Amino acid sequence: MSGRRGRRWVHLLTYAVLAPAAVVTLVPFAWLLTSAFKAPQEFFGSMFLPRGDGFLGVAWDRLTTGNLTRLFRELSIGRAMLNSLFLSSVTSVLATLCCAAGGYALAMYRFRGRRVLTWVVLGALIVPPPLLLAPGYQVLYRLGLLDTYSGLILPAMAPAFGVFLFRQASLQSVPPQLLEAGRLDGCSEAGLFGRIALPLLRPMTGAFLLITFLGVWNNFIGPQIVLQSPEKQPLAVAIAQLKGVYYEDYGLLMAGTLVSIAPVAGLFLLLQKDFVSGLTLGAVK
Amino acid sequence: MTARARVGLAPYLFLLPFLVVFGVFVLAPLGESVVLSTRQMFGPGASVFVGLDNFRFLLHDPLFYKAVRNTLVFTAGSVFIQLPLALGLAMLLNRPGLRGRYVLRLVFFSPQLVGLVFLAVMTSVIFQKRTGVLNQALHALVGVSLDYPWLERQIMPTLILAALWMYVGFNMIYFLAALQNVDRELTEAASIDGAGPGRRFLAVTLPAIAPVGGFVVLLSILGSLQLFELPYILLTGSGPDNKGLTIVTYLYQSGFETGDLGYASAIGWVLAILLAALAVGQRLLAREARA
Questions:
Q1: Which of A18, A41, A269 to mutate to test the interface with B (most CBs of B within 10 A)?
Q2: CB-CB under 8 Å, A193 with B15
Q3: Superfamily of domain B50-112+166-178+194-290 in the CATH hierarchy
Q4: Model pTM score
Q5: pLDDT digit string (tens) for A20-49?
Q6: ipTM score assigned to the predicted complex
Q7: Which pLDDT score is estimated for A284?
């Protein structure tokens, strides 16, 4: 009897900790959302929404979409958003295909040099990205790829980390007998990969696509170094520059942040099941 | 046999994109970086050979030490504040019979979707003195001065706090996965044998999550040591008196603001050695703990 009552207390205590933690996590989002719709003179008048006698006691009419219109009309954030969309989708699709193919090959074929190549992938995994910044810039300069999207997409097209993840995923979820059966039926090697392996790797491809998309979307240092033309810049650089110029126009900055986060948040909510299972795949194994 | 012959080139073709990218954008820059680190550069075209002078200069460069110190402070914050909180949340979420687990997990993870650039912009507005919402809230609640200058006087704590918001939920996901390895029956047996919650944690939970835990600690250390965007954009550089200078910020400023890719490469190598040493150290510690 006392055990059950004790358990209930523990349960309540658990919620007593989790609920405030969840609120603390969500407050910045709520604040961001409301700030984005405030005119400069309203910004400090209220913490979230201005009080008034509208629905729920809020002065809805004092909120404005002026920040958003300015972003898209005067500051060409729309262009930056299209740039981000382009870079993120092209890079993530290419990277997912290249990494899946590479990892699948390392896992499912016995071929000369397989051990060495596996070690190469593991070795590439430990190279810290900042080490490649300066010399990478030099290489892009020599190849004439500075200020081009290729200069950003090509280096990110087949990360070792992805090849490794797909190697693990293939070992776990692609049965060799199935490939052998396909071969006997006369399926080509490319067909085996595309029609048998890729569908079996589904949770991993979803997760990796999303991870890469997010990574490119949020990447600042890459485009900051590689791109020079202002009209080519993605959102991460555009918003950082916006902060440099309009550092006192808080509503505008928050509107810019909001429109930069919203698309990836939407994508995440669509694909989140894949994401969390893929994220932990590498860790639990 | 015919099948095997036909397989022939296939694996190499599948690996070709990786190999080309690795060769051109990893291996070549690595070699380039060795060469660069022996040169002083004035923009990408002009340079002179200086031998090991870059490294010699680096070892006596007070700014570099400042960067290392700041970076280590941030790393300590990640490991000793962020990870325990993440583990705590994971253990609470893992309680049997908890309702709303799925939603809560999503809530705690959600800050991870905000890129560091956008987090930095948000932080710069929230932590602003006088006008920032943090000071307004603290002023109303506990009477802290509205003018408390977080972004001048408390730069590292501000960075640690901002990172806390972003990464606690991310690391929590890993710990939650690790907690699935904890044997429930063993925990219950320990409980029947009279082991309290502290003892159960040390004797049953901790050993079960140790492998993933070690991995999370390592990832967290490696990531923290490469801190750049958050302070760089929050402070538009390295902040007053370089209080927010990190190793990678210094690398970036040397290479792309001063224009000396040579010195930047030298900083890159020292960072790489630091990372490798910590990774090896962590592996050795983990092995020792298991033995």
A1: A18
A2: no
A3: MetI-like (1.10.3720.10)
A4: 0.89
A5: 999 999 999 999 998 899 888 777 777 777
A6: 0.87
A7: 40
